[in-house]
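User: I've been trying to design a sequence by hand for this structure and keep getting stuck. Would you show me what you'd pick, starting by listing the structure so we're on the same page?

Assistant: Good idea, let's start from the same input. This is the structure you sent:
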């Protein structure tokens, strides 16, 4: 490892014994250095943003929040920091929500030590890692939804506003009245919007809007869970 900087890791886990075990495991690796640790999200966030580790290993459940909520806050402030969620049990909905929210990995606490270490290395090198026990269908579902949600996220505020009005079932005339626009202008916006989304019908666009809304709602639910 001469001449190469070690992977800098921060540990956020609610139990001292878990943090201690992870610290001992990772510090034994020549290419990994633990730069900080905490059992509270409120303490971990400012420390992580100050220390700027390569990877933040985040307990799915923290006394004052969730690993997912912490991951979202980290990603919003510094996208270069990679978040790896460490969960006590497999929850396909939580996995999907975590990955959609920007987590680079999701692994179970029961995973063997070498797999966790290798997972951290992969995440640090820019890869995404999901525990081997997660069905391929969940991973594919997440990948598809991430692509769809990114398209919605890249829309202009006006386009997104029209998209959600389409999802409410409003016609072009009704959207025009709601937004104080000419109906022809709305029609042009809708045509451009469908093209941007890569769909042919309003129903498909409405489904993408619903997917976005569900993902946002689910993320808030996990954020609020402690």
């Amino acid at each position: 490892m001469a001449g190469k900087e070690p992977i800098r890791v921060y540990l956020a886990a609610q139990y001292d014994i878990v943090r201690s075990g992870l610290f001992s495991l990772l510090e034994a690796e020549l290419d990994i250095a633990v730069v900080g640790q905490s059992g509270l999200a409120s303490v971990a966030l400012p420390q992580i943003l100050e220390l700027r580790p390569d990877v933040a290993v985040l307990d799915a459940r923290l006394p004052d929040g969730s690993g997912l909520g912490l991951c979202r806050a980290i990603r919003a402030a510094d996208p270069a920091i990679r978040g790896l969620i460490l969960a006590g049990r497999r929850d396909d909905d939580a996995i999907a929500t975590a990955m959609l929210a920007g987590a680079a990995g999701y692994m179970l606490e029961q995973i063997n030590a070498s797999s966790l270490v290798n997972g951290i290395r992969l995440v640090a090198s820019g890869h995404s890692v999901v525990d081997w026990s997660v069905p391929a269908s969940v991973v594919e579902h997440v990948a598809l939804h991430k692509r769809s949600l990114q398209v919605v996220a890249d829309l202009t505020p006006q386009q997104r506003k029209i998209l959600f009005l389409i999802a409410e079932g409003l016609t072009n005339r009704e959207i025009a009245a709601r937004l104080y626009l000419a109906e022809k202008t709305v029609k042009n916006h809708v045509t451009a919007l469908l093209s941007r989304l890569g769909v042919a019908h309003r129903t498909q666009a409405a489904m993408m809007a619903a997917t976005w809304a569900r993902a946002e709602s689910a993320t808030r639910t996990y954020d609020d869970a402690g």
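That's my pick for every position. To get oriented when you compare it with your attempt: The mean pLDDT is 82. The CA atoms of residues 122 and 129 lie 7 Å apart.
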